[in-house]
């Protein structure tokens, strides 16, 4: 049991509180707040639930977090809260790893099929009332590189393999014989491997090493017929280089669910470029996902108050949950 029978929990949630918090409210003093009120809510709080997972308010309120022992973010990516003050502190960081894996994998399969079967052009022709017969591509046997080998990447690999695609991965530790990817390439030598693939899927966590990894050199290394899919973080991509690669025919298309600036500015050329599929950061957002995020937090909250090891503990130096580590002392 933690020191106080009723711990103080700050919840950063913007204008709307999370659903299904009744059980937590019975076991803690819960302070709901938006970004402006976060310093006051953090004063004396032992826990922080960052439900508004796109908020960048935590670093600016960190001066008030003197009693904080645990921070949980309602997303798989932790880059909005991974700043030096947290990294250097003793505060345990956990995330919502596992919630979005299958939904994002379904999205990736969807856009792969959309490219192969030319769905976007079919819809344009339908709206124009034009009957135009065309031939499309098979996906079976196509080569896919999934850059990012955590649970989301593995779910993507399994689903694409089931559809007949041949999938490899790229991560920090290259090896062969992986159960989901077969071959894992070294992401530090990414451009050496890109020429072999028909689809390249970005799902790596955002770290200093991965920021801007898809730049002019990466796109130039891809096949002219390759399609690029980003369901990781917008900052993995140098957007101007992607636009130039699409305009210059260095790659054949892109499906983008995340962007370095969100919402995507209205004057971005990506809105109107052919062979570009856009969605507003929603690839993992299935019906009921908000409730599931609270369930994941509530399960860890019960472990925390009981002094049990927490699940999904992030290695703050790496920026993600190591595959071999699921928990740590609360």
Automatic annotation (TrEMBL):
Superkingdom of origin: Bacteria
CDD domains in alphabetical order: 2-Hacid_dh_1 (cd05300)
Swiss-Prot/TrEMBL keywords: NAD, Oxidoreductase
Keyword NAD: yes
GO molecular function term, any single one: oxidoreductase activity, acting on the CH-OH group of donors, NAD or NADP as acceptor
InterPro entries listed in its UniProt record: D-isomer_DH_CS (IPR029753), D-isomer_DH_NAD-bd (IPR006140), NAD(P)-bd_dom_sf (IPR036291)
Chain ranges of the D-isomer specific 2-hydroxyacid dehydrogenase NAD-binding domain: 111-283
Protein name stated in the entry: D-2-hydroxyacid dehydrogenase
């Amino acid at each position: 049991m933690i020191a106080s029978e009723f711990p103080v929990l700050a919840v950063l949630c913007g204008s709307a509180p999370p659903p299904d918090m009744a059980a937590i409210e019975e076991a803690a003093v819960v302070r709901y707040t938006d970004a402006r009120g976060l310093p006051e809510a953090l004063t004396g709080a032992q826990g922080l639930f960052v439900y508004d997972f796109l908020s960048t308010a935590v670093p600016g309120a960190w001066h008030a977090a003197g009693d904080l022992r645990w921070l949980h973010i309602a997303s798989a990516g932790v880059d909005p809260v991974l700043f030096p003050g947290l990294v250097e502190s003793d505060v345990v960081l956990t995330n919502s790893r596992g919630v979005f894996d299958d939904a994002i994998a379904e999205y990736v399969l969807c856009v792969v099929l959309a490219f192969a079967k030319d769905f976007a052009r079919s819809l344009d022709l339908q709206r124009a009332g034009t009957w135009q017969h065309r031939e499309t591509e098979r996906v079976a046997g196509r080569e896919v590189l999934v850059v990012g080998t955590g649970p989301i990447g593995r779910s993507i690999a399994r689903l694409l393999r089931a559809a007949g695609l041949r999938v490899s991965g790229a991560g920090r530790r290259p090896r062969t014989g992986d159960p989901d990817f077969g071959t894992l390439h070294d992401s530090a030598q990414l451009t050496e491997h890109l020429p072999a693939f028909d689809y390249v899927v970005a799902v790596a966590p955002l770290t200093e090493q991965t920021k801007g990894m898809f730049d002019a050199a990466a796109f130039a290394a891809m096949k002219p017929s390759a399609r690029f899919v980003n369901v990781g973080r917008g900052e993995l991509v140098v957007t101007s280089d992607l636009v130039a690669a699409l305009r210059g025919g260095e790659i054949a298309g892109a499906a983008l669910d995340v962007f370095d600036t969100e919402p995507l500015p209205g004057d971005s050329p990506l809105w109107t470029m052919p062979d570009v599929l856009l969605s507003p950061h929603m690839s993992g957002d299935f019906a009921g996902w908000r409730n599931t995020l609270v369930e994941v937090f509530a399960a860890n909250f019960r472990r925390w108050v009981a002094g049990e090891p927490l699940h999904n503990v992030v290695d703050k130096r790496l920026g993600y949950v190591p595959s071999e580590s699921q928990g740590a002392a609360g």
